[in-house]
Amino acid sequence: NAGVTQTPKFRVLKTGQSMTLLCAQDMNHEYMYWYRQDPGMGLRLIHYSVGEGTTAKGEVPDGYNVSRLKKQNFLLGLESAAPSQTSVYFCASRGDLQGALYDSPLHFGNGTRLTVT
Amino acid sequence: GEDVEQSLFLSVREGDSSVINCTYTDSSSTYLYWYKQEPGAGLQLLTYIFSNMDMKQDQRLTVLLNKKDKHLSLRIADTQTGDSAIYFCAESNNFGNEKLTFGTGTRLTIIP
Description:
The complex is a heterodimer of chains A (117) and B (112). With 117 residues, chain A is mostly beta strands. Helix content of chain A is 0%, strand content 49%. Chain A is built from no helices and eleven strands. In chain A, strands 2, 4, 5, 6, 9, 10 and 11 form a seven-stranded mixed beta sheet that branches. In chain A, strands 1-3-8-7 form a four-stranded antiparallel beta sheet, with no helix packed on it. Helix content of chain B is 0%, strand content 55%. Chain B is built from no helices and eleven strands. In chain B, strands 2, 4, 5, 9, 10 and 11 form a six-stranded mixed beta sheet that branches. In chain B, strands 1-3-8-7-6 form a five-stranded antiparallel beta sheet, with no helix packed on it. Chain B is globular, with a radius of gyration of 13 Å. Chains A and B meet through strand 5 and strand 10 of A and strand 5 of B.
């Protein structure tokens, strides 16, 4: 049971380059989320999706785009990377739409460490 | 917007109790959570408490909530080396499509 899988685990980009982070979940979850984690700032929500074909902006969406073409995958794109996007990126998913988070907790991937030079 | 604050670091001797504190600003918070992040891993839900509760105990974990002061704490009894991790406090106030607001995280270090 893989749960939430993020690829790649590490990446170094030069300023202006683009890349896509992939998140895949095998739990048939409806909701998927992308967070970034920065020292001393906790986790901040970038974008999220409430189902296949839908996306919505979170707290810090600028500079990122997302797509949810298939229910099991949620892609995070950086079109033109900037040093301020150096961070650890976490994908998460959850299932039950009617339950509180304690019923259907967020399942997190192990993160992607991105460095932009 | 909502704000959740935690101390960044805490060191505790093995076998002692650890107390990790959290303050939040949103008075309409409905659920409050503690997540644990071990090195190189994502976050895992550790425990939670409803806003109409004062205390919740789960084995070595005790959660205390002071709603008046908007203060949440996590006590870990008999702290072990396996408890070394970053602990995140999180709150939500919207039942259904819940989005969490996370604290800054507290790195717990165990001293042998």
